[in-house]
Fold this protein.
Amino acid sequence: MQTRSAFRNAQSVRGIAVITVLLISGVILAFVLGGLNLAAQHLFQVSALHSRHRALCAAEVGVSKAQYELEENPAYAGPANGALEDGSQYSVSIEHVGTKAILHSLGQAGGQSQKLKVVMSLDADTYRALSSKGLLDFPTDSFINGIRSLSDTRSAKGNTHTQGDLRIAGAAKLSVTGLASASGSFDDPSRVVAGEHATGGTATTPNFTRDSLLAVSFPGAFIPASGTVTQNTEVNGQTNLNHPLNIPAGVTVHVKGDLILNQGMHGDGTLVVDGNLLLRGSENLKSDTPKGVLVYAQKDIILAHPSAEVDPDATNGFTAHISSVGSLFAEMPEGVPYLLRQRLPPGAPANVNFFAWYSAQQQSPTPAFTEWQQGDNTTLNPGLPPDVLSWLGKAAAMHTQIEATVNP
């Protein structure tokens, strides 16, 4: 009896042990399965996150693509669609609202999608440097470049367009960093350098007319001596200003005749000229004028170098003649002003007579002149650089014209 009881006790112990092992195994298995489930969920989450990131990158690429197209052509309406090497795709729709473009970019990848909305200002960042309804005539070598805006002075393409004809006279060349285009004829596209050219096409309709620009009252009758116009102003007859003209935003100036601006113009307002407009450049860049002045002229617009000789009495409007002295100093190397202020040899005049003195020294040089010009083979006195020597030689040959320009 004792043996049978002991046997039954042993069986009970083994049964409890088996149940305990099974319970522990079940718990372990539950932990393992739970861990596998969590790992699978994490993998799905990571995969979805990665796909969302790819979709966002695709949407950003779509925005960049649309921005590029709008910089090339502000009227671009899309849509812009494409795919990346990783299989993600983008689709961009463009909505034009006034002077703004609203971009809606959708990026898709691995079943995930991301959307971006970007608002672009077209009037400050993408504009034509020079636009005309009539003839654009370039009588001499001309250069058209551009910046993104006055608040962002990185270089950008400078474009020119005319709804009429574009003419490049003689052997002159037009250097444009963007696109030179004409709805009419093109005199000689082969003389357009650096940029591109295009002919033909349909003339665009301007979003304003002369009458709409003048549909305001004009309480002012003259331009103040300060050059800053504070109210709508209408001036009768030819006007010749020797100070900068500032037309703030919301202000319109109407000149009922020819207008000559010898010191440039700035502001955000509107200028309407019934006759010819002669506009000389200015050395001062006004960074508080992000849009610039809207100019409408009934006749010719002449953009002249500050030193260009202009005949305002010409029968065909203002006629500009390039000043040889102005061209000379436009080519002056940067180091010349320092050399002429700080390192002149004994006896050299420090005024406009310097060029006549230099010409005479070339014919019969003194030792001091030779040492100043050629140096003494030391690092302290290396002599004048080759570009400075070349320019001074040209200036010496023109000393009479230079003196006549300074002392007319």
